[in-house]
Amino acid sequence: MAKPAFWEAMRRQQISYWFIIAPFLLFFVFVIIPTIASIILSFTKYNVMSAPQWVGLDNYKEIVLHDIRFRKAMLNTVIYTIGVVPVGVLISVILAVAIDQKIRLKNFFKGVLFLPTVTSIVAASVMWRWLFAGEKYGLINYYIVMKLGFKPIDWLMSPVWTLPAIMIMSIWAGIGYNVILFIAGLQTIPQTVYEAAEVDGAGFWHKLLHITIPLLRPTIVFVVIMSCISSFQVFEQIYVMTGGGGSQIGGVLDCALTGVPYIFDQGFNKFDMGYASALAYILFLFILVLTFINNKFVQSKVEY
Amino acid sequence: MINIARFTQGRFSFTLFLIYAFLIIATLTMLLPYYWMILTSVKPQEELQTYPPSFSVKHPTLQPYRDLLDLIPMGRYILNSLYICAVVVLFKVFACTLAGYAFAKHRFWGRDWIFMTFLASLMIPWQVNIIPGFVIVKNLGWLNTFSGLIIPTMGWGAFGIFLSRQYIYSIPNDLIDAARIDGCNEWQIYTHVILPLIKPVMATLAIFTFIQQWNNLVWPLVVVNSSSMKTVPLALAVLSSQTSSNFGMLMAGAVVATTPVLLVFLVFQRYIIKGVAFTGLKG
Predict the structure, then answer these.
(1) Where does a domain end: B62, B82, B105?
(2) What is the pLDDT of residue A148?
(3) How far is A169 from chain B (nearest CA, A)?
(4) Which structural domain, as residue segments, surrounds residue A237?
(5) Considering CB atoms only, which of B121, B135, B241 is closest to A245?
(6) Based on the structure, what is the number of domains in chain B?
(7) pLDDT digits (tens, 9 = 90+) for A156-167
(8) How sure is the predictor about A117, in pLDDT bands with cuts at 50, 70 and 90?
(9) Does A130 touch chain B (CB under 8 A)?
(10) Which of A25, A37, A106, A142 could be B132's S-S partner, Cβ–Cβ 3.0 to 4.6 Å?
(11) Could you tell me the residue range of the domain that residue B35 belongs to?
(12) Which ranges of chain B have pLDDT less than 70?
Protein backbone atom coordinates (compact mmCIF):
# COMPACT_ATOMS: atom_id res chain seq x y z
CA MET A 1 0.00 0.00 0.00
CA ALA A 2 2.92 2.32 -0.64
CA LYS A 3 1.27 4.22 -3.45
CA PRO A 4 -1.79 5.70 -1.72
CA ALA A 5 0.35 6.69 1.25
CA PHE A 6 2.72 8.40 -1.17
CA TRP A 7 -0.05 10.37 -2.85
CA GLU A 8 -1.60 11.21 0.50
CA ALA A 9 1.73 12.62 1.62
CA MET A 10 2.04 14.54 -1.64
CA ARG A 11 -1.41 16.05 -1.11
CA ARG A 12 -0.61 17.15 2.42
CA GLN A 13 2.74 18.56 1.38
CA GLN A 14 1.42 20.20 -1.77
CA ILE A 15 2.07 23.72 -0.52
CA SER A 16 5.79 23.01 -0.02
CA TYR A 17 6.11 21.96 -3.64
CA TRP A 18 4.35 25.11 -4.79
CA PHE A 19 6.87 27.11 -2.77
CA ILE A 20 9.87 25.64 -4.57
CA ILE A 21 8.36 25.01 -8.00
CA ALA A 22 9.45 28.21 -9.80
CA PRO A 23 13.15 28.21 -8.92
CA PHE A 24 13.27 24.44 -9.29
CA LEU A 25 11.79 24.34 -12.79
CA LEU A 26 14.08 27.11 -14.00
CA PHE A 27 17.02 25.42 -12.33
CA PHE A 28 16.09 22.15 -13.99
CA VAL A 29 15.64 23.57 -17.48
CA PHE A 30 18.56 26.01 -17.52
CA VAL A 31 21.13 24.35 -15.26
CA ILE A 32 20.55 20.61 -14.96
CA ILE A 33 19.51 19.90 -18.54
CA PRO A 34 22.38 21.94 -20.07
CA THR A 35 24.92 20.25 -17.79
CA ILE A 36 23.78 16.83 -18.96
CA ALA A 37 23.24 17.93 -22.56
CA SER A 38 26.79 19.20 -22.59
CA ILE A 39 28.11 15.69 -21.94
CA ILE A 40 26.04 14.30 -24.77
CA LEU A 41 26.98 17.14 -27.13
CA SER A 42 30.64 16.51 -26.41
CA PHE A 43 30.33 13.15 -28.23
CA THR A 44 28.83 14.74 -31.34
CA LYS A 45 29.61 17.06 -34.18
CA TYR A 46 27.09 19.87 -34.05
CA ASN A 47 27.06 23.20 -35.86
CA VAL A 48 23.57 24.35 -34.71
CA MET A 49 22.26 24.40 -38.30
CA SER A 50 22.01 20.65 -38.88
CA ALA A 51 21.24 17.83 -36.46
CA PRO A 52 24.08 16.64 -34.20
CA GLN A 53 26.09 13.69 -35.53
CA TRP A 54 27.40 11.08 -33.12
CA VAL A 55 31.20 10.87 -33.36
CA GLY A 56 32.02 8.98 -30.17
CA LEU A 57 35.28 9.97 -28.55
CA ASP A 58 36.61 11.79 -31.63
CA ASN A 59 36.39 15.24 -30.07
CA TYR A 60 38.28 14.15 -26.97
CA LYS A 61 40.91 12.31 -29.02
CA GLU A 62 41.41 15.33 -31.24
CA ILE A 63 41.76 17.65 -28.23
CA VAL A 64 44.18 15.50 -26.31
CA LEU A 65 46.27 14.22 -29.19
CA HIS A 66 46.35 16.87 -31.91
CA ASP A 67 44.94 20.20 -30.84
CA ILE A 68 47.82 22.69 -30.72
CA ARG A 69 45.59 25.63 -29.81
CA PHE A 70 44.25 23.65 -26.83
CA ARG A 71 47.79 23.04 -25.58
CA LYS A 72 48.60 26.71 -26.03
CA ALA A 73 45.41 27.67 -24.20
CA MET A 74 46.06 25.34 -21.27
CA LEU A 75 49.68 26.47 -21.04
CA ASN A 76 48.54 30.09 -20.98
CA THR A 77 45.90 29.27 -18.37
CA VAL A 78 48.57 27.73 -16.16
CA ILE A 79 50.97 30.65 -16.70
CA TYR A 80 48.17 33.07 -15.93
CA THR A 81 47.25 31.18 -12.75
CA ILE A 82 50.84 30.89 -11.55
CA GLY A 83 51.35 34.59 -12.20
CA VAL A 84 48.13 35.90 -10.70
CA VAL A 85 47.40 33.70 -7.70
CA PRO A 86 50.63 33.82 -5.61
CA VAL A 87 51.23 37.53 -6.17
CA GLY A 88 47.57 38.37 -5.60
CA VAL A 89 47.39 36.31 -2.41
CA LEU A 90 50.66 37.67 -1.04
CA ILE A 91 49.64 41.31 -1.56
CA SER A 92 46.20 40.57 -0.11
CA VAL A 93 47.60 38.97 3.04
CA ILE A 94 49.93 41.93 3.65
CA LEU A 95 47.12 44.42 3.07
CA ALA A 96 44.75 42.49 5.32
CA VAL A 97 47.27 42.38 8.15
CA ALA A 98 47.93 46.10 7.69
CA ILE A 99 44.24 47.00 7.80
CA ASP A 100 43.63 44.75 10.79
CA GLN A 101 45.95 46.89 12.93
CA LYS A 102 44.81 49.69 15.19
CA ILE A 103 44.77 52.29 12.44
CA ARG A 104 42.47 55.06 11.35
CA LEU A 105 40.28 54.96 8.23
CA LYS A 106 39.91 51.16 8.28
CA ASN A 107 36.59 51.25 6.41
CA PHE A 108 37.94 53.69 3.87
CA PHE A 109 40.85 51.41 3.04
CA LYS A 110 38.62 48.34 2.86
CA GLY A 111 36.16 50.19 0.65
CA VAL A 112 38.78 51.46 -1.79
CA LEU A 113 40.43 48.06 -2.10
CA PHE A 114 37.05 46.48 -2.73
CA LEU A 115 36.04 48.92 -5.50
CA PRO A 116 37.38 46.82 -8.40
CA THR A 117 35.41 43.79 -7.18
CA VAL A 118 32.11 45.59 -7.80
CA THR A 119 33.32 47.21 -11.01
CA SER A 120 32.38 45.33 -14.15
CA ILE A 121 35.37 43.52 -15.56
CA VAL A 122 34.47 44.92 -18.96
CA ALA A 123 34.78 48.49 -17.67
CA ALA A 124 37.96 47.63 -15.78
CA SER A 125 39.47 46.03 -18.88
CA VAL A 126 38.60 49.10 -20.92
CA MET A 127 40.30 51.34 -18.33
CA TRP A 128 43.40 49.18 -18.38
CA ARG A 129 43.45 49.04 -22.16
CA TRP A 130 43.95 52.78 -22.00
CA LEU A 131 46.55 52.60 -19.20
CA PHE A 132 48.46 50.07 -21.27
CA ALA A 133 48.17 52.11 -24.47
CA GLY A 134 51.17 51.78 -26.73
CA GLU A 135 53.93 54.29 -27.44
CA LYS A 136 54.39 57.22 -25.10
CA TYR A 137 50.66 58.01 -24.70
CA GLY A 138 50.04 55.17 -22.31
CA LEU A 139 50.33 56.12 -18.67
CA ILE A 140 52.20 52.95 -17.76
CA ASN A 141 54.57 53.31 -20.68
CA TYR A 142 55.39 56.92 -19.94
CA TYR A 143 55.54 56.93 -16.15
CA ILE A 144 56.91 53.45 -15.50
CA VAL A 145 58.48 51.78 -18.52
CA MET A 146 60.19 54.88 -19.93
CA LYS A 147 61.18 56.30 -16.54
CA LEU A 148 62.98 53.03 -15.89
CA GLY A 149 64.89 53.63 -19.09
CA PHE A 150 63.21 51.12 -21.37
CA LYS A 151 61.62 51.67 -24.74
CA PRO A 152 57.81 51.99 -24.64
CA ILE A 153 56.10 48.61 -24.93
CA ASP A 154 53.14 48.01 -27.22
CA TRP A 155 51.52 45.98 -24.44
CA LEU A 156 48.32 44.66 -25.95
CA MET A 157 49.69 44.20 -29.45
CA SER A 158 52.80 42.31 -28.45
CA PRO A 159 52.83 38.50 -28.30
CA VAL A 160 55.11 38.69 -25.26
CA TRP A 161 53.43 41.36 -23.15
CA THR A 162 49.70 40.82 -23.69
CA LEU A 163 49.30 38.08 -21.12
CA PRO A 164 51.42 39.83 -18.45
CA ALA A 165 49.39 43.02 -18.97
CA ILE A 166 46.15 41.10 -18.44
CA MET A 167 47.66 39.41 -15.38
CA ILE A 168 48.53 42.77 -13.83
CA MET A 169 44.99 43.97 -14.41
CA SER A 170 43.56 40.77 -12.90
CA ILE A 171 45.70 41.09 -9.78
CA TRP A 172 44.45 44.65 -9.36
CA ALA A 173 40.86 43.48 -9.84
CA GLY A 174 41.05 40.53 -7.45
CA ILE A 175 42.88 41.88 -4.41
CA GLY A 176 39.97 43.56 -2.61
CA TYR A 177 37.85 40.43 -2.44
CA ASN A 178 40.73 38.40 -1.00
CA VAL A 179 41.56 41.13 1.51
CA ILE A 180 38.04 40.99 2.92
CA LEU A 181 38.24 37.19 3.26
CA PHE A 182 41.64 37.47 4.97
CA ILE A 183 40.42 40.13 7.40
CA ALA A 184 37.52 37.83 8.30
CA GLY A 185 40.09 35.05 8.82
CA LEU A 186 42.30 37.26 10.97
CA GLN A 187 39.39 38.08 13.22
CA THR A 188 38.90 34.42 14.08
CA ILE A 189 42.37 34.29 15.66
CA PRO A 190 41.79 34.52 19.40
CA GLN A 191 43.13 37.67 21.06
CA THR A 192 44.42 35.60 23.99
CA VAL A 193 47.07 34.00 21.79
CA TYR A 194 48.52 37.42 21.04
CA GLU A 195 48.32 38.45 24.67
CA ALA A 196 50.22 35.35 25.71
CA ALA A 197 52.90 36.15 23.14
CA GLU A 198 53.13 39.73 24.33
CA VAL A 199 53.67 38.54 27.87
CA ASP A 200 56.54 36.49 26.51
CA GLY A 201 57.93 39.65 24.95
CA ALA A 202 57.10 39.04 21.29
CA GLY A 203 57.17 42.06 18.98
CA PHE A 204 55.12 42.90 15.91
CA TRP A 205 57.16 40.95 13.37
CA HIS A 206 57.56 38.03 15.71
CA LYS A 207 53.82 37.79 16.26
CA LEU A 208 53.19 38.17 12.55
CA LEU A 209 55.48 35.31 11.57
CA HIS A 210 54.81 32.94 14.44
CA ILE A 211 51.14 33.52 15.19
CA THR A 212 49.26 35.36 12.47
CA ILE A 213 50.53 33.57 9.39
CA PRO A 214 50.36 30.01 10.81
CA LEU A 215 46.88 30.54 12.25
CA LEU A 216 45.69 32.14 9.05
CA ARG A 217 46.74 29.09 7.06
CA PRO A 218 43.23 27.65 6.53
CA THR A 219 42.02 30.96 5.07
CA ILE A 220 45.13 31.18 2.90
CA VAL A 221 44.57 27.68 1.52
CA PHE A 222 40.91 28.45 0.88
CA VAL A 223 41.70 31.70 -0.93
CA VAL A 224 44.48 30.12 -2.98
CA ILE A 225 42.21 27.33 -4.22
CA MET A 226 39.31 29.70 -4.90
CA SER A 227 41.64 32.02 -6.81
CA CYS A 228 42.98 29.08 -8.83
CA ILE A 229 39.44 28.05 -9.74
CA SER A 230 38.50 31.53 -10.89
CA SER A 231 41.81 31.90 -12.74
CA PHE A 232 41.04 28.73 -14.67
CA GLN A 233 37.76 30.32 -15.70
CA VAL A 234 39.15 33.71 -16.71
CA PHE A 235 37.28 35.05 -19.70
CA GLU A 236 36.06 38.63 -19.73
CA GLN A 237 39.37 40.46 -19.40
CA ILE A 238 40.92 38.24 -22.09
CA TYR A 239 37.93 38.82 -24.35
CA VAL A 240 37.96 42.59 -23.96
CA MET A 241 41.69 43.27 -23.73
CA THR A 242 42.61 41.18 -26.75
CA GLY A 243 40.38 43.15 -29.05
CA GLY A 244 36.91 42.03 -28.08
CA GLY A 245 36.16 38.99 -30.15
CA GLY A 246 35.88 38.05 -33.76
CA SER A 247 38.72 35.86 -34.87
CA GLN A 248 41.20 37.84 -32.78
CA ILE A 249 40.06 36.37 -29.45
CA GLY A 250 43.24 35.52 -27.55
CA GLY A 251 45.41 38.20 -29.15
CA VAL A 252 48.31 38.02 -31.58
CA LEU A 253 49.35 34.40 -32.26
CA ASP A 254 47.01 33.23 -29.48
CA CYS A 255 49.51 34.73 -27.04
CA ALA A 256 46.81 35.33 -24.43
CA LEU A 257 44.38 32.57 -25.35
CA THR A 258 43.25 30.73 -22.22
CA GLY A 259 40.80 27.88 -21.65
CA VAL A 260 37.42 29.55 -21.57
CA PRO A 261 38.06 32.03 -24.40
CA TYR A 262 39.11 29.04 -26.49
CA ILE A 263 35.86 27.23 -25.67
CA PHE A 264 33.99 30.39 -26.59
CA ASP A 265 35.89 30.71 -29.85
CA GLN A 266 35.17 27.11 -30.88
CA GLY A 267 31.52 27.34 -29.84
CA PHE A 268 30.40 30.77 -30.94
CA ASN A 269 32.85 31.81 -33.66
CA LYS A 270 33.45 28.48 -35.37
CA PHE A 271 30.08 27.00 -34.30
CA ASP A 272 31.70 23.69 -33.43
CA MET A 273 29.42 23.12 -30.46
CA GLY A 274 30.32 19.47 -29.88
CA TYR A 275 34.02 20.21 -29.79
CA ALA A 276 33.48 23.20 -27.51
CA SER A 277 31.44 21.03 -25.11
CA ALA A 278 34.23 18.48 -24.94
CA LEU A 279 36.69 21.30 -24.18
CA ALA A 280 34.36 22.61 -21.48
CA TYR A 281 34.22 19.21 -19.82
CA ILE A 282 37.98 18.79 -19.86
CA LEU A 283 38.33 22.19 -18.19
CA PHE A 284 35.57 21.23 -15.74
CA LEU A 285 37.64 18.19 -14.80
CA PHE A 286 40.61 20.40 -13.89
CA ILE A 287 38.36 22.62 -11.79
CA LEU A 288 36.75 19.63 -10.11
CA VAL A 289 40.16 18.38 -9.01
CA LEU A 290 40.87 21.81 -7.50
CA THR A 291 37.51 21.75 -5.73
CA PHE A 292 38.24 18.35 -4.20
CA ILE A 293 41.67 19.48 -3.04
CA ASN A 294 39.92 22.45 -1.50
CA ASN A 295 37.43 20.29 0.37
CA LYS A 296 40.22 18.04 1.63
CA PHE A 297 42.49 20.81 2.87
CA VAL A 298 40.05 23.36 4.16
CA GLN A 299 38.39 20.77 6.38
CA SER A 300 41.66 20.20 8.21
CA LYS A 301 41.63 22.43 11.26
CA VAL A 302 44.61 24.19 12.77
CA GLU A 303 45.79 23.03 16.14
CA TYR A 304 46.67 25.60 18.71
CA MET B 1 44.62 41.95 16.06
CA ILE B 2 48.22 42.72 16.72
CA ASN B 3 48.21 45.55 19.18
CA ILE B 4 50.92 47.88 17.94
CA ALA B 5 49.74 50.92 19.83
CA ARG B 6 50.11 49.06 23.09
CA PHE B 7 53.39 47.58 22.02
CA THR B 8 54.91 50.90 21.08
CA GLN B 9 53.14 52.81 23.84
CA GLY B 10 52.20 55.67 21.56
CA ARG B 11 55.70 56.55 20.51
CA PHE B 12 56.50 57.02 16.85
CA SER B 13 56.68 53.58 15.41
CA PHE B 14 58.50 52.71 12.26
CA THR B 15 56.21 49.73 11.77
CA LEU B 16 53.13 51.90 11.94
CA PHE B 17 54.68 54.32 9.48
CA LEU B 18 55.39 51.43 7.10
CA ILE B 19 51.81 50.22 7.42
CA TYR B 20 50.34 53.61 6.56
CA ALA B 21 52.77 54.13 3.70
CA PHE B 22 51.92 50.73 2.26
CA LEU B 23 48.17 51.30 2.59
CA ILE B 24 48.34 54.73 1.02
CA ILE B 25 50.35 53.45 -1.94
CA ALA B 26 47.87 50.58 -2.37
CA THR B 27 44.94 52.98 -2.19
CA LEU B 28 46.41 55.26 -4.84
CA THR B 29 47.15 52.29 -7.11
CA MET B 30 43.58 51.10 -6.73
CA LEU B 31 42.11 54.53 -7.47
CA LEU B 32 44.44 55.55 -10.29
CA PRO B 33 42.61 53.68 -13.09
CA TYR B 34 39.32 55.28 -12.01
CA TYR B 35 40.86 58.74 -11.87
CA TRP B 36 42.43 58.23 -15.28
CA MET B 37 39.13 57.02 -16.70
CA ILE B 38 37.15 60.01 -15.43
CA LEU B 39 39.88 62.46 -16.42
CA THR B 40 40.14 61.04 -19.93
CA SER B 41 36.37 61.13 -20.34
CA VAL B 42 36.36 64.93 -19.96
CA LYS B 43 39.51 65.70 -21.93
CA PRO B 44 39.22 67.24 -25.39
CA GLN B 45 40.83 65.16 -28.13
CA GLU B 46 43.84 67.52 -28.48
CA GLU B 47 44.78 67.07 -24.83
CA LEU B 48 44.80 63.28 -25.23
CA GLN B 49 47.60 63.64 -27.71
CA THR B 50 49.77 65.81 -25.47
CA TYR B 51 53.01 64.50 -24.25
CA PRO B 52 53.78 63.75 -21.48
CA PRO B 53 50.32 62.49 -20.44
CA SER B 54 48.87 65.10 -18.10
CA PHE B 55 47.20 64.41 -14.76
CA SER B 56 44.92 67.39 -15.11
CA VAL B 57 42.65 68.82 -17.76
CA LYS B 58 42.91 72.38 -19.05
CA HIS B 59 39.61 72.69 -20.91
CA PRO B 60 37.15 70.11 -19.60
CA THR B 61 34.53 69.07 -22.12
CA LEU B 62 31.60 66.69 -22.38
CA GLN B 63 32.38 66.02 -26.04
CA PRO B 64 33.39 62.37 -25.41
CA TYR B 65 29.94 61.72 -23.92
CA ARG B 66 28.31 63.39 -26.92
CA ASP B 67 30.44 61.23 -29.24
CA LEU B 68 29.32 58.18 -27.32
CA LEU B 69 25.62 59.04 -27.58
CA ASP B 70 25.97 59.88 -31.27
CA LEU B 71 27.52 56.51 -31.96
CA ILE B 72 25.39 54.14 -29.86
CA PRO B 73 22.00 54.37 -28.11
CA MET B 74 23.48 54.19 -24.60
CA GLY B 75 20.21 55.35 -23.00
CA ARG B 76 18.44 52.36 -24.45
CA TYR B 77 21.17 50.01 -23.19
CA ILE B 78 20.99 51.48 -19.69
CA LEU B 79 17.23 50.87 -19.67
CA ASN B 80 17.76 47.31 -20.97
CA SER B 81 20.26 46.62 -18.19
CA LEU B 82 18.09 48.20 -15.49
CA TYR B 83 15.02 46.27 -16.62
CA ILE B 84 16.89 42.95 -16.59
CA CYS B 85 18.40 43.73 -13.19
CA ALA B 86 15.03 44.70 -11.72
CA VAL B 87 13.25 41.53 -12.85
CA VAL B 88 16.06 39.19 -11.79
CA VAL B 89 16.49 40.92 -8.42
CA LEU B 90 12.75 40.73 -7.65
CA PHE B 91 12.65 37.09 -8.66
CA LYS B 92 15.68 36.12 -6.61
CA VAL B 93 14.60 38.04 -3.53
CA PHE B 94 11.13 36.48 -3.40
CA ALA B 95 11.47 33.10 -5.10
CA CYS B 96 14.71 32.18 -3.33
CA THR B 97 13.44 33.15 0.10
CA LEU B 98 10.13 31.36 -0.47
CA ALA B 99 11.95 28.20 -1.51
CA GLY B 100 14.43 28.74 1.31
CA TYR B 101 11.53 28.79 3.76
CA ALA B 102 10.14 25.52 2.41
CA PHE B 103 13.57 23.87 2.60
CA ALA B 104 14.21 25.18 6.11
CA LYS B 105 10.89 24.60 7.84
CA HIS B 106 8.74 22.19 5.84
CA ARG B 107 8.99 18.43 5.68
CA PHE B 108 8.19 16.97 2.32
CA TRP B 109 9.12 14.00 0.24
CA GLY B 110 12.45 14.53 -1.61
CA ARG B 111 13.30 17.73 0.27
CA ASP B 112 16.89 16.86 1.13
CA TRP B 113 17.61 15.39 -2.29
CA ILE B 114 16.35 18.44 -4.10
CA PHE B 115 18.27 20.72 -1.79
CA MET B 116 21.47 18.73 -2.27
CA THR B 117 21.03 18.96 -6.04
CA PHE B 118 20.81 22.74 -5.75
CA LEU B 119 23.95 22.76 -3.61
CA ALA B 120 25.87 20.48 -5.96
CA SER B 121 25.08 22.82 -8.84
CA LEU B 122 27.21 25.49 -7.17
CA MET B 123 30.23 23.50 -8.34
CA ILE B 124 29.22 23.59 -12.00
CA PRO B 125 31.31 26.15 -13.85
CA TRP B 126 29.28 28.36 -16.17
CA GLN B 127 31.25 27.52 -19.27
CA VAL B 128 29.86 23.97 -19.20
CA ASN B 129 26.35 25.39 -19.52
CA ILE B 130 26.56 28.16 -22.04
CA ILE B 131 26.65 25.99 -25.14
CA PRO B 132 23.55 23.86 -24.45
CA GLY B 133 22.03 26.97 -22.84
CA PHE B 134 22.43 28.78 -26.13
CA VAL B 135 20.91 25.85 -28.04
CA ILE B 136 17.89 25.75 -25.69
CA VAL B 137 17.32 29.50 -25.91
CA LYS B 138 17.67 29.37 -29.69
CA ASN B 139 15.09 26.58 -29.95
CA LEU B 140 12.70 28.49 -27.74
CA GLY B 141 13.05 31.40 -30.17
CA TRP B 142 14.40 33.61 -27.40
CA LEU B 143 17.57 34.91 -29.03
CA ASN B 144 17.59 38.72 -28.90
CA THR B 145 14.69 38.89 -26.45
CA PHE B 146 14.30 39.91 -22.83
CA SER B 147 13.01 36.40 -22.10
CA GLY B 148 16.27 34.96 -23.37
CA LEU B 149 18.29 37.41 -21.31
CA ILE B 150 16.28 37.10 -18.11
CA ILE B 151 14.68 33.68 -17.68
CA PRO B 152 17.76 31.43 -17.99
CA THR B 153 19.59 33.65 -15.49
CA MET B 154 16.87 32.91 -12.96
CA GLY B 155 17.88 29.26 -13.01
CA TRP B 156 21.03 30.12 -11.06
CA GLY B 157 19.24 30.63 -7.77
CA ALA B 158 21.02 27.94 -5.78
CA PHE B 159 23.13 30.30 -3.75
CA GLY B 160 20.20 32.52 -2.87
CA ILE B 161 18.16 29.51 -1.78
CA PHE B 162 21.05 28.21 0.28
CA LEU B 163 21.58 31.57 1.97
CA SER B 164 17.86 32.02 2.75
CA ARG B 165 17.53 28.47 3.99
CA GLN B 166 20.44 28.84 6.43
CA TYR B 167 19.05 32.08 7.78
CA ILE B 168 15.44 30.93 8.04
CA TYR B 169 16.58 27.70 9.69
CA SER B 170 17.71 29.74 12.69
CA ILE B 171 14.26 31.30 13.19
CA PRO B 172 12.62 29.51 16.18
CA ASN B 173 9.89 27.03 15.23
CA ASP B 174 7.79 28.33 18.13
CA LEU B 175 7.28 31.57 16.27
CA ILE B 176 5.96 29.75 13.21
CA ASP B 177 3.80 27.41 15.32
CA ALA B 178 2.32 30.38 17.16
CA ALA B 179 1.33 31.96 13.85
CA ARG B 180 -0.15 28.64 12.71
CA ILE B 181 -2.26 28.40 15.89
CA ASP B 182 -3.45 31.94 15.28
CA GLY B 183 -4.81 30.70 11.96
CA CYS B 184 -2.16 31.75 9.49
CA ASN B 185 -1.80 29.56 6.43
CA GLU B 186 1.65 28.80 5.02
CA TRP B 187 1.60 31.74 2.63
CA GLN B 188 0.66 34.13 5.44
CA ILE B 189 3.42 32.72 7.62
CA TYR B 190 5.86 33.49 4.82
CA THR B 191 4.61 37.03 4.26
CA HIS B 192 3.87 38.01 7.89
CA VAL B 193 6.40 36.06 9.95
CA ILE B 194 9.36 35.09 7.77
CA LEU B 195 9.77 38.06 5.44
CA PRO B 196 9.94 40.71 8.19
CA LEU B 197 12.62 38.66 9.95
CA ILE B 198 14.86 38.06 6.95
CA LYS B 199 15.23 41.60 5.64
CA PRO B 200 19.04 41.44 5.93
CA VAL B 201 19.15 38.36 3.69
CA MET B 202 16.80 39.97 1.21
CA ALA B 203 18.94 43.10 1.13
CA THR B 204 22.14 41.08 0.67
CA LEU B 205 20.58 39.05 -2.13
CA ALA B 206 19.18 42.13 -3.84
CA ILE B 207 22.47 44.06 -3.73
CA PHE B 208 24.64 41.20 -4.92
CA THR B 209 22.21 40.12 -7.63
CA PHE B 210 22.04 43.69 -8.89
CA ILE B 211 25.81 44.01 -9.06
CA GLN B 212 26.26 40.62 -10.75
CA GLN B 213 23.51 41.27 -13.29
CA TRP B 214 24.61 44.78 -14.12
CA ASN B 215 28.16 43.58 -14.74
CA ASN B 216 27.35 40.33 -16.54
CA LEU B 217 28.90 40.10 -19.98
CA VAL B 218 28.87 36.43 -20.90
CA TRP B 219 25.17 35.62 -21.14
CA PRO B 220 24.18 38.75 -23.11
CA LEU B 221 27.15 38.06 -25.38
CA VAL B 222 25.75 34.60 -26.08
CA VAL B 223 22.07 35.42 -26.64
CA VAL B 224 22.18 38.92 -28.17
CA ASN B 225 23.43 40.05 -31.54
CA SER B 226 20.88 42.72 -32.42
CA SER B 227 21.94 46.25 -31.65
CA SER B 228 18.76 47.19 -29.79
CA MET B 229 18.91 44.40 -27.15
CA LYS B 230 22.45 44.97 -25.91
CA THR B 231 23.18 45.52 -22.26
CA VAL B 232 25.67 48.11 -21.01
CA PRO B 233 28.68 45.77 -20.57
CA LEU B 234 28.04 44.12 -23.92
CA ALA B 235 27.75 47.49 -25.64
CA LEU B 236 30.98 48.60 -23.97
CA ALA B 237 32.83 45.43 -24.99
CA VAL B 238 31.70 45.84 -28.60
CA LEU B 239 32.59 49.54 -28.52
CA SER B 240 36.02 48.68 -27.18
CA SER B 241 36.66 46.24 -30.03
CA GLN B 242 35.80 48.95 -32.57
CA THR B 243 37.67 51.84 -30.95
CA SER B 244 41.37 52.29 -31.45
CA SER B 245 41.76 56.06 -31.25
CA ASN B 246 38.86 57.84 -29.54
CA PHE B 247 39.77 56.83 -26.01
CA GLY B 248 37.85 59.76 -24.54
CA MET B 249 34.63 58.27 -25.84
CA LEU B 250 35.59 54.79 -24.68
CA MET B 251 36.28 56.08 -21.17
CA ALA B 252 32.94 57.90 -21.21
CA GLY B 253 31.37 54.49 -21.88
CA ALA B 254 33.33 52.97 -19.00
CA VAL B 255 32.13 55.76 -16.70
CA VAL B 256 28.53 54.98 -17.65
CA ALA B 257 29.07 51.26 -17.00
CA THR B 258 30.76 51.85 -13.66
CA THR B 259 28.67 54.60 -12.08
CA PRO B 260 25.49 52.68 -11.08
CA VAL B 261 27.34 49.92 -9.22
CA LEU B 262 29.66 52.44 -7.60
CA LEU B 263 26.62 54.34 -6.29
CA VAL B 264 25.14 51.12 -4.94
CA PHE B 265 28.50 50.33 -3.38
CA LEU B 266 28.88 53.75 -1.75
CA VAL B 267 25.42 53.49 -0.19
CA PHE B 268 25.65 49.85 0.94
CA GLN B 269 29.40 49.52 1.45
CA ARG B 270 29.26 48.07 4.96
CA TYR B 271 26.50 45.66 3.98
CA ILE B 272 28.41 44.42 0.97
CA ILE B 273 31.70 43.94 2.78
CA LYS B 274 29.97 42.13 5.64
CA GLY B 275 28.14 39.96 3.12
CA VAL B 276 31.43 38.96 1.50
CA ALA B 277 33.11 38.26 4.82
CA PHE B 278 30.25 36.06 6.05
CA THR B 279 29.27 34.22 2.90
CA GLY B 280 32.11 34.48 0.40
CA LEU B 281 29.68 36.04 -2.08
CA LYS B 282 31.43 37.79 -4.92
CA GLY B 283 30.25 41.11 -6.30
Answers:
(1) B62
(2) 86
(3) 10
(4) 68-122+159-299
(5) B241
(6) 2
(7) 888 889 999 999
(8) very high
(9) yes
(10) A37
(11) 4-62
(12) 1-12, 281-283
